[in-house]
Amino acid sequence: MYSYRCCSLLLNLVFLVVISAKVVKNNVCTTFRGYGNIQNDQNCFYNPDLDSTPSQIAEGHGYALETHTTTTQDGYIISMFRLKRNSAQKKFGQPVILQHGIIVDGLSWMISGNNSLGFNLVSNGFDIWLPNFRGSTFSAKHINSTISDKDYWDFSFHELGIYDVPAFAEKISDVTKRSDIVYIGHSMGSTAGLIYASIKPEHARKYIKGFIFTAPVAFFRNVKGALRAALPFYILIKGLLAALKIYAIGTFPALQSFLTGLACGSYPSMLLCQMIYSFTTGLAIEQVRPDVLPIILKFYPTGTPVKSLIHYAQIIRANGRFQQYDYEIKEENMKKYKSALPPMYEIEKIKVPSHVFASKNDFLSDFDDSKLLYEHLTSAKGMHTYGLGHTDYLYGKDVNKLYKNIVDVIETNFIKNNVIK
């Protein structure tokens, strides 16, 4: 009887293994052509990250993840991921914020596998924090409203800078008992950091040791590609979104399913999606990673207010004037700002040492615009140039040099031998 049970158990285990092997199917490919025969092409494989939670993604790459929450002064309940080398880690090095850009969240620093900046910095001994801006998947709560309410989405990246960033900094300082955070922002993460440090310079000097602005969006003067092409239709698009009562993007599951399924989930249609993507962010074709595209489409876009998109468009229409939100009604601007025009962000007031990372292939954060930002930053300490597209800082093939330079900037400029290796 005992031997029978053992044999039965063994057969059941074998059966489960066989079934599991059949269920696990290839879901990404290192070439676009591979997607045409994804289950048989030698360039295709199964990436568990595509079907995983943030904690599972971290664990799958040998790390651990904590989630911390805090509440902003205006009532948004926002979260942060803290990456750890392992769940038992007790000693931490230099605290570093990796602040995500528009239509993504903190997970964006983890979805390139071992090529992710988040994992790279943890392995170099830093204490990595990945905040999620309000409205995104992991920061979608408010003390009085929900994401279904129009009022919830009444914010732009201005509020991210004056509310979210200081709340993140204070929470990290409270947990770590340190006030020497290095802030690395990408795209809108840089925008919010600039707004924060210019409007609250003393708060920034108290909590932030140094800024690294990658692909910064501020003087939005020379934007190219799809965004420039859409600009003549600003009034039409804005009016249409208002008429349809669309206050945010990234909040429509049906659209997400369409993008990951019919539109961009199969070959050759995904080539068109990649062309549109490159035409929007920058033409560094050699940096494209076909194996990461399905993961990007799975998780993004996440919740982003239309008001942020309008705010960016206003800056472009104002010839790159880095200004606060324009209510486009003189009386409203006078009531809010005591001026017919919205005030500019006075980045000359930033007192924290800053480094700018720019690219000559970036359609959104144009190199000349980044150079202009650098020239206006009285606290600027260095400008670093690359050949990347806007999102290649996160998902590009050749990011090792970039990441090494980021580590060098932190270790050389912002800390003195206090990284836990």
TrEMBL record:
The active site is at 187 (nucleophile), 362 (charge relay system), 390 (charge relay system). Residues 55-112 form the Partial AB-hydrolase lipase domain. It comes from the Eukaryota. One of its GO terms (biological process) is lipid catabolic process. SUPFAM superfamilies: alpha/beta-Hydrolases. The keyword Hydrolase applies. Residues 1-21 form the signal peptide. It holds the Pfam family Abhydro_lipase. Keywords: Glycoprotein, Hydrolase, Lipid degradation, Lipid metabolism, Signal. GO terms for molecular function: hydrolase activity, acting on ester bonds. Belongs to the AB hydrolase superfamily. Lipase family. This is Lipase. It comes from Psylliodes chrysocephalus.
